[in-house]
Amino acid sequence: MNIQPAPRLFAVSRPLRKVPSLMLHADSQNPLLWLRGDRGCVGLGEALRLVFRGKDRFAEASAAWQRIAAAAGIDDTVNLPGSGLVAFGTFTFDDESDAESVLIVPQLLVARHGDRAWVTEVSTEPLDQPRKLPPTRARGTWSGTTLDTLTNDSDYLRGVDKAAALIERGEEEKVVLARTVTTSIDAAADLRVPLGRLAYNYTDCWTYAVDGMIGASPETLVRQTDGLITARVLAGTRGRREQPESDQLMRDELLASEKEQHEHAFAVQSVVTALAPHVSELHTSERPFALELPNVWHLATDLEAVPGDGSSTIDLVAALHPTAAVAGTPTRDAVAAISQLEPFDRERYAGATGWVDASGDGEWVIALRGAQIREPHDGQRQVVAYAGGGIVAGSDPEHELRETVSKFRPIAEALAP
Question: In angstroms, rounded to a whole number, what is the distance separating the alpha carbons of residues 211 and 246?
Fold first, then answer.
């Protein structure tokens, strides 16, 4: 961690009379954003940044956040999920990643929950009232870029073949393999433009932006608020079709596929097993349902539980990550296989991104359907987009490649000219 000891923080939250446009309040170059429909928040500036690395990153983050929250002076008259002291976070997928995992406390947070809205200011000095909201800014320039997702990725095809061979030999049951597409955008580009497109087109997803990791994830890793824990597991995919009859056929094929149902069962069981020691009264939907998104159909299962041992959402994230949906089964062996088969560092892709408040409640998604946007260099910002799929017995490399093309679609459309 890069700040020891952390300063004592003071946070004051007050309701707003009018519900603001969250996207227009976001920072155009370094957005901190969490948005789905009429719920979400944006952060401006940084009151505190905590950095973590390695296999103990979640445990260190949880302990550090508990210390900071316990010492903080919080004046919160809103008392809603996400009011008071809040940190945005994004964590790497792999223990050995070279990338940083971070918790960021914004100086100013603007949030809404339905028709209620509030502002929170955080400082190292006591506060009486939060400052007035800065004026919204119209979206700036956006020239866009093209993601060449249709490239015949020979590395990925070879990886699928090798993963399938491991499975045939009985060394694995499932391995989730990803691939990347790299492009660049102008350093001055307004990142609220692609985020706005994601939020508009993918209303059933959480649109997120934390430390340059942006996207719209359909998969809630864990949410804990008001004494309830929920999660959504996605595994099993079919691309959408333009013709209604063909699209319905894809949906029916997904629901009837023994391979996809088997893959989905792996993913659900991994979440149930991880959550069980920390919760009580754990329930899941009776059978997987088809979740309809603009780009794909997913097999989905919702889980609900009551907190059992006082774990914060960061603790629950640590228990759940990585799920079979983004790693494979057995998970530890699958992660080891991924490190050998993928010729790149996933960094925050398929890790956890979300927020946590002073009570330990929060919401976290698996960072999917997104990209990491690098810091400006020579007038450009590199963009690394990610997509992957689960390899099981009988997986066809060309089919798996086409599946990644469907999963690239949200970020590709968001970044387009």
Answer: 40
User: Count of domains in the chain?
Assistant: 1
Q: Is the pLDDT of residue 236 over 90?
A: no
Radius of gyration of the chain (CA): 21
**245-254 long-range contacts, Cβ below 8 Å, gap at least 24?**
250/297, 251/290, 251/292, 251/297, 254/290, 254/297, 254/299
How large is the average pLDDT for residues 194-203? 97
Residue 60 belongs to domain spanning: 10-137+144-415
The pLDDT score that the predictor gives to residue 394 is: 84
| Residue 192 forms part of a structural domain | yes
- DSSP-derived letter for residue 361 is -
As given in the structure block, the two tokens for residue 36 are 């789905």
Residue 2 falls inside a structural domain = no
Q: Spell out the residues 6+ positions from residue 332 whose beta carbon is closer than 8 angstroms to its own.
A: none
Q: Are 369 and 96 contacting, i.e. CB atoms less than 8 angstroms apart?
A: no
pLDDT more than 70, % of the chain:
99
For the domain that residue 128 is a member of, what is the CATH number? 3.60.120.10
Helix (H) or strand (E) run with residue 207 in it: strand 206-210
**Two structure tokens written together for 159:** 């990886």
Instruction: Name the average pLDDT for the chain.
Output: 94
Q: Tell me the one-letter amino acid at 69.
A: A
Inside any domain, residue 5: no
From 172, 219, 260, 342, active-site residue:
219
Whether 78 maps to a domain, the answer reads yes
Range list of H helices, 169-243: 192-201
Residue 265 has what pLDDT? 86
Report whether pLDDT(221) > 60.
yes
**259 catalytic residue (yes or no):** no
| Confidence at residue 151, expressed as pLDDT on a 0 to 100 scale | 79
Set 60, 100, 172, 174: catalytic member: 174
The alpha carbon of 274 is separated from its chain's Cα centroid by a whole number of angstroms, namely: 19
Q: Which of 71, 70, 109, 65 is nearest to 91 (CA)?
A: 65
Q: What single-letter amino acid sits at 283?
A: H
* pLDDT tens-digit readout, 48-106: 999 999 999 999 999 999 999 999 999 999 999 999 999 999 999 999 999 999 999 99
CB 207 within 8 A of CB 63: no
Q: Where are the beta strands (DSSP E) in 91-162?
A: 101-105, 108-113, 116-123
Whether 168 is catalytic is no
Residue 267 pLDDT level (bands cut at 50, 70, 90):
confident
Q: Tell me what pLDDT residue 3 has.
A: 47
- 297 within 8 A of 250, measured Cβ to Cβ: yes
